[in-house]
Amino acid sequence: MDLELDHIFILTDKPKEAGDLLVSMGLGESFSRDHKGQGTSNRRFMFSNGMLEILYVRDSEESNNGPARKLRLPERIQKENASPFGIVLTRTNDLKLGMPFSGWKYQPDYFEPPNAFHVGDNSEILGEPLCIYVPFVGPVSRIEEIGTFKSISNVQVSVLIGNMSDTLRILQSADRLEIALGSEHMVTLTLDNERSGLSKDLRPVLPLIINW
Question: How many whole angstroms from its chain centre is CA 204?
């Protein structure tokens, strides 16, 4: 199955500082929402062909005991070597309708059944990002708008582990996504094909470097 990046999320315990930093750079913030049953809320930054989501735990009890408990979201924020990232994918064609990798069905309270996520079975490996496929969304026509902070050209996700799971290896074939072994958990977000030749390192607020 051909896969492409829909959006990436970064878990943080500093949502105000992180979101405000992105706004101060000039990124356009969209509406935020609470995720019923998941115990999280977000701040969303939209582009013409994808999204960067700042995700934070609003209610740890709900997150640990609700339908999202197997995602282990609070642990991914609290544990030093855990990946705070989630990669959300859709398909680029309808020729194959099976799941692209082995995993389990996550039925959020905020989706009407039968709409549900397919979560990669590497979710138990805290050192790897969550890999999430959206089977109920068909191919999307994504047009890269020209301008500043308009489109996602590439997302590189660095992981600390020595050997990638089968699920993570499958994600390496997705459009606009690169998985790399690194010395720390990091996302390098390339926007607008780097036309401006500029870059900003958002550490220590976020494990994120933006090139545009």
Answer: 19
Q: What is the CA radius of gyration of the chain?
A: 16
> What phi, psi does 70 have (nearest 5°)?
-70, -15
Summarize pLDDT for 122-135 with one digit per residue, the tens. Answer: 999 999 999 999 99
> How far is 100 from 172, CA to CA, in rounded Å?
12
φ/ψ (deg, to 5) at 67: -65, -15
96 vs 12, residue with greater confidence: 12
Nearest one of 182, 31, 155, 17 to 88, comparing CA atoms: 155
Q: Which amino acid is located at 158 in the chain?
A: S
Cα–Cα distance, 144 to 65 (Å, whole number): 40
Q: Output phi, psi for 137, to 5 deg.
A: -110, 120
Instruction: Quote the pTM value.
Output: 0.96
